[in-house]
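Morning. Coffee machine broken again, so started the prediction first thing and wrote up yesterday's gels while waiting. Chain of 562 residues, entered below exactly as on the submission form.
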Amino acid sequence: MRGLLRWFLLALALAGAARAQRLQTWCLEHARFQPGPGATDAPMAVGSLQKPFVARAWAVAHPGEAAPRLACTPRSGCWLHQGHGEIGLARATALSCNAYFRQLAAATPLEVVNAHLRRAGFQGSAHSAEAAIGLPDGQPPLLIRPSVLLMKYNQLINSPWIEGEPLRRQLLAGLREAAFSGTASALKRRGCWAKTGTVPFPGNPLQTCGLALAVEDGGGAVLARLEPGTGREAAAALGTSGFRPSPGEDTPGTSGVTVQLFELLRPRGWRVRNLGLTSIPSSRGGFLGPGGTQDLVKDDWVGPGLLEIEALGTGLHRRVEALVRCPGRRTLLATMGPREYTQGVLAAELPGATESRRIELGAAVQRFLARGPRHPEADVCDSTHCAWFIGRGPRVEWPRGDRVVLGGAPPEPTLSDSEWLAMVELARRPGPSHWTSHCGGHPLSAHALWGGDDRAIQDCGRHGAGQSRPWQRTWRAQDLERAFGEPVSALAVTLVEGVWGLMVVGSRSSRTFTFDEAHRRLASVLGWGALPSPADGVEPVPGGFRASGVGLGHRVGLCLGE
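Came back before lunch.
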């Protein structure tokens, strides 16, 4: 009830501040819909808020196709007169590009578009591509109840698509970006997905009404309508009001963090077991009962529920509360809530840590997720390429990059409500979005490891020259040949425009590898400890080379070392 009261107070405050403008709000919290003061659940036009459902219709009409990149030019008739340039689905969503979505609608049979709009709860039919994306075309606009719209946006964000899931991931990235640098950036809030829309003002063709919709990480959602106004203005009104998405209830599989599991392995197959006390849905046309097992083949899915997943032929299994999908024989994806994902990272990265350290890392995990997906089909993988994630265990050791040894199962990972609230709140403030095992007394910027514009260095404050954790490794010539695919005659650490690299001179080529790629190649032969951190130097020794450095991990962001 506290959350609902917050929205009522929000609506009253905004209505008083708007004066000449009328603001209405609607919220969906813990699956309960509540209109704000003066608002009803009457159907209304929502303009560009229709666009994500048009994208889904396009995905169904073009199975297996990647989302197109299209040109928005001054002749495209977009709301931005100079055009957005060449643009893809994620950026078009963030900027609500009319030209991009109009072309998607035009490339989809109108009956398919209308079928998906009706499935989403819209009343009426679109007779043109313009009407499909919420633009006026001289016909009555499509209408939808605010309660249905909020529920369908929640489903869009929380539920994977059986068809076109890669496109949904791009849509989510665009909705996330909209709250930072897109049409909803005036919200000035982390931890939410957002979309804006603008529709004609009833009875006054010279004015418009603005809409802004935001969905929080925990599943709650709010819709605001400002009249007269624009979508940007509606987002600004919502943002300046003190809008704070609460973490809410973290129901498994409903907050849209998709993890590629066992990313480094090549098992002969997958098997899932239902560890819960009730039956859970399955793609096999029914349910998987308590204790039941199912081997996964292409396009199978199970969940959401508490599952044990076995990577057949490796001896590795993992417990996680999620919806699990197998889009291909070699790929396994688990969609879970951010709280489930965060506690799985904490169990791997910081077992037994103090509460303050756990909160710091949990906030960094949320900021990391807010940066957008890192894989074509998933937000993150479970290896150190993204973050070490073990779900609910067991812990493992990696003597080689493709070999695992089971360790003892950790205690059931738990994240208290107070810790989770503190993490979500801290994540809204500026801070690191990366973390490392030990900074070596010399932390690095994200630019130094991966390039890009982020040259900020997170000060550790705990490690200096006396706690640098120096290391040396000797790499034999035959191991280097296996790792890099040819005999190696020379190695050197390089800094090209300030970015670390390992130059490898072979018998047939000379290549420079980033830290991630060099680490992965060496790990496949010598284990994960072969390159503990970005080396400071490499020198030849009899039979091979010796590398030396400090610290443990990539040395970027929050230092987790003691």
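Residues 2-18 form the longest helix (17 residues). Going to sketch it on the whiteboard this afternoon.
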